[in-house]
Write a sequence for this structure.
């Protein structure tokens, strides 16, 4: 690259005037002939199915082709009278269309040739654009040749070559379409929306996502609660290997009354694609296309590579976008498993989207499943766990749910299993309040029993009884607990009231002593 003699800065290479001044490649005769034949025959040519509106050099012809395809799909005859309403006043080329259609009767043998010409011209225009873009970018010191090579490969891949870079849709066209939000798992996992599962360390993110994978592949409820739409699923895993995948998937399938071998729509890979590896990204579409995947998991994304600038939402967002575009272009939903920031979630509180580690994750997520602990694990009850599941998405669906998980222990007869109960947030909070009250009651009862033993130990020193004040002082209890403990002993019948005669007092004191047992 040459530099400027004045300031030493990089200078863009000169572009040949012959290239820039020449008109972009086009196939005007082929475009006219193809559209004329279609209008003359009132029929969309089936052999031209690979041609889209973006392949036409003339945008008006591209719009005619687009609306003709819509009419064909809707079963409406393709005529100038049915095409004209899609154009504003004065835009519809009625006279030209009539002229093109008059030549159509003789064009049938040349249609295949015309189609090849249109596609070739479109590819040459794309190549020209990329060449100009290469010259423009190469003038920048930060130019990345490898990134440009990826752009070039995508532009001429089997699928990308037939798609426009941008496609504008009018408000009228948008309003005319009937669009319905579809879900892999009702309410919590929408289709074709990038989904993040965020969780603190060791909070079942892999098990819960394999439950989602098995559920969608088998058409059974996710977590035995959320209805699913059956579809093909691919699960890329970077941790644990086949041993862990097999153990998890087998017991999850068993919880649904299935054998893992009975699930035909599910595929696993123990190798995780690298987001910044061009070879991996070019191989991914073929894999998804071969199995017609509808839902794809990447577990976990920290092993899938990063930009090296995890604090930059621009750098990380570019990686997520690159991967997401590849998966979405194949008609599949990307689901990325990720960790939450350390100590970001307070114990007992639901996780928030902002808890996801690295910049860009929360911004890119269109749907999310966030896991956190509802209670600390109880060492006395191994294999039982209580979590919060905060599910949300751009459509305002989802909600806060509580998960009661039981998976047992390896030492149990039959080994570990998988059982999940899903509760509403209100029911879970009532359960928490009830458990806390029960624990308070248990603690209070334990304290009372301890105090009873202390009082009985003191009273045993005074078989004939002693005054309340001396008994309290000897026990070391405060007035409140002392009165409650003494009342409990009296109610139990372990202690009875008695008179205490002091030598220097005529009237006896009220006292207490251990009650003598009745003779048998």
């Amino acid at each position: 690259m040459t530099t400027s003699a004045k300031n030493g800065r990089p200078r863009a290479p000169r572009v040949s005037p012959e290239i820039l001044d020449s008109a972009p490649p086009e196939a005007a005769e082929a475009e006219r002939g193809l559209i004329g034949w279609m209008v003359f025959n009132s029929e969309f040519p089936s052999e031209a199915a690979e041609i889209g509106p973006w392949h036409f050099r003339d945008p008006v012809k591209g719009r005619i082709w687009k609306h003709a395809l819509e009419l064909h799909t809707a079963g409406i005859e393709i005529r100038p009278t049915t095409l004209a309403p899609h154009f504003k006043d004065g835009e519809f080329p009625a006279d030209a269309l009539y002229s093109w259609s008059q030549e159509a009767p003789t064009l049938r043998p040349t249609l295949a040739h015309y189609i090849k010409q249109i596609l070739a011209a479109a590819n040459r225009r794309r190549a020209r654009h990329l060449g100009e873009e290469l010259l423009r970018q190469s003038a920048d010191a930060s130019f990345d040749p490898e990134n440009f090579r990826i752009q070039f490969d995508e532009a001429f891949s089997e699928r990308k070559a037939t798609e426009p870079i941008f496609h504008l849709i009018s408000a009228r066209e948008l309003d005319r379409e009937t669009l319905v939000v579809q879900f892999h798992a009702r309410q919590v996992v929408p289709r074709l929306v990038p989904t993040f599962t965020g969780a603190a360390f060791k909070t079942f993110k892999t098990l819960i996502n394999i439950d989602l994978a098995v559920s969608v592949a088998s058409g059974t409820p996710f977590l035995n609660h959320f209805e699913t739409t059956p579809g093909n699923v691919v699960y890329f895993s970077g941790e644990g290997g086949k041993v862990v995948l097999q153990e998890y998937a087998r017991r999850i399938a068993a919880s649904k009354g299935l054998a893992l071998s009975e699930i035909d729509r599910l595929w696993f890979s123990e190798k995780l694609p690298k987001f910044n590896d061009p070879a991996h990204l070019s191989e991914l579409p073929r894999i998804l296309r071969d199995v017609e995947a509808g839902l794809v998991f990447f577990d976990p994304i920290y092993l899938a590579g990063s930009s090296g600038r995890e604090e930059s939402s621009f750098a990380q967002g570019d990686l997520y976008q690159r991967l997401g575009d590849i998966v979405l272009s194949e008609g599949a939903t990307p689901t990325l498993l990720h960790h939450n920031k350390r100590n970001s979630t307070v114990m007992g509180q639901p996780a928030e989207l902002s808890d996801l580690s690295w910049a860009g994750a929360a911004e890119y997520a269109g749907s999310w499943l966030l896991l956190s602990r509802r209670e600390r694990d109880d060492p006395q009850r191994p294999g039982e766990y209580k979590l919060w599941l905060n599910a949300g998405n751009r459509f305002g669906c989802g909600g806060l749910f509580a998960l009661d998980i039981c998976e047992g222990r390896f030492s149990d007869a039959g080994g570990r299993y998988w059982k999940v109960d899903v509760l509403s947030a209100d029911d879970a909070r009532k359960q928490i309040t009830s458990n806390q009250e029960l624990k308070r009651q248990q603690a209070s009862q334990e304290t009372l029993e301890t105090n009873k033993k202390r009082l009985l130990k003191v009273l045993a020193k005074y078989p004939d009884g002693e005054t309340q004040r001396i008994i309290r002082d000897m026990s070391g209890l405060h007035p409140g607990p002392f009165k409650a403990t003494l009342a409990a002993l009296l109610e139990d019948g372990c202690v009875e009231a008695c008179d205490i005669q002091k030598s220097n007092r005529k009237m006896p004191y009220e006292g207490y002593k251990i009650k003598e047992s009745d003779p048998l």
Remarks:
- The chain has a mean pLDDT of 83.
